[in-house]
Amino acid sequence: MNYDFLVNSIVEELYNKINDLEIYNKPKAVVLWPNSEDEMNILRDEFEVEKFSDNTKNCDLVVISRLCMRGLCNLATGNSTSQEERFILKMLMKGKKVFILENNLEYRRYKKTAPKALYNKYVEYEREICKY
Predict the structure, then answer these.
(1) Of 5-14, 38-47, 73-82, 109-118, where does mean pLDDT reach its minimum?
(2) pTM assigned to the model
(3) Which residue, 3, 17, 21, 105, shows the most beta carbons closer than 10 Å to its own?
(4) What angle do CA 118, 76, 55 make, to 5 degrees?
């Protein structure tokens, strides 16, 4: 009996079976401050989605649904005053992707009324975060 042939045949058959199983783990996305369940549902096709909680330790992707002016400033300068901000900075330091929904950046609501210099300061904060 040719044992090499037998072993190679078994290994090849196992390899084919494993490839046919389509084992696929979705990357984990953590959403901070979601505005609605719809925002989370959009991501569910591609990601395992969960809302941020104090128990959240790690993920593959962070989605920030809305960001206040204080949070924008803190993140741009590498500071944190909340659990959420600490988590975001930690994920950035781990090299994870962090996305902020542009429509929900609070400072943009004040474009028409804010002093230009102050508004531009927040624009710079946003640019700083984009560099990360």
Answers:
(1) 5-14
(2) 0.77
(3) 105
(4) 130
Tokens of 77: 């300068």
Helix H, strand E, coil C: the string for 101-118 is: CHHHEHHHHHCCCCCHHH
Whole-angstrom CA distances from 64 to 15, 19, 32, 99, 116 are 40, 36, 5, 6, 26
Q: Report the distance separating Cα 129 and Cα 97, nearest Å.
A: 12
CB 98 within 8 A of CB 75: no
Q: In 3D, which of 33, 28, 3, 18 has the Cα closest to residue 91? A: 28
User: Which position has the higher pLDDT, 68 or 13?
Assistant: 68
Answer yes or no: are the C-beta atoms of 28 and 47 closer than 8 Å.
yes
Residue 3 has pLDDT above 70, yes or no: yes
